[in-house]
Amino acid sequence: MLKDFFSKKKKYATVPLERANQDVPEGLMTKCPSCRTIFYSKELMKNLMVCKTCGHHHQMTAYARIDSLLDEGSFQEFDKLMISEDPLNFPTYVEKLEQDRKKTKLNEAVVTGSGM
């Protein structure tokens, strides 16, 4: 019995994780960054992007937030063609604006409008 206590531990074979990750399609599951719980993405969207376990609010696009709050087809956007400018001529600000427009596909940082 004492002999077993001092003996070397046996090594076990490890299963590579790459194979397991390939089985799940991209975007099917979402992990909460706060509590690390894994959800189906559709289930998280039904819960308005709020984790059921810890209450963490995940990021939503502006239009996804508007769709979750207002009746379908009732939103009337104001100033859709408004574009940010650089009146103080900050260096590289125009390039930053262009990068953000490409990233978000929005002309402005804020979406304004009315709806029911």
Produce a short descriptive summary.
With 116 residues, the chain is α+β, with helices and mostly antiparallel strands.
Notes on the protein architecture:
- With 116 residues, the chain is α+β, with helices and mostly antiparallel strands.
- The chain has 2 domains: 24-59, no CATH class; 71-116, no CATH class.
- 32% of the residues lie in helices and 10% in strands.
- Strands 1-2 form a two-stranded antiparallel sheet. A two-stranded antiparallel sheet has the order 3-4.
- It starts with a helix and ends with a strand.
- The relative contact order is 0.11.
- The model has no long low-confidence stretch (mean pLDDT 87).
List keywords for this structure.
single chain; 116 residues; alpha+beta; 2 domains; two-stranded antiparallel sheet; 10% strand
Record the SSE blueprint.
Layout: H1 2-6, H2 17-22, E1 29-31, E2 38-40, H3 41-46, H4 62-69, E3 76-78, H5 93-104, E4 112-114
Antiparallel strand pairs: 1-2, 3-4
Strand content: 5-15%
Could you say which overall geometry the principal axes of the C-alpha atoms support?
Answer: elongated
Structural class: alpha+beta
Q: What letter string, H or E per element, gives the SSE order?
A: HHEEHHEHE
How many beta strands in the DSSP annotation?
4
Side-by-side strand order of the widest sheet: 1-2
**Percent of residues in helices:** 25-40%
Number of domains: 2
Enumerate the spans where pLDDT stays under 50 for 5 or more consecutive residues: none
Spatial gap, N to C terminus? 75 Å
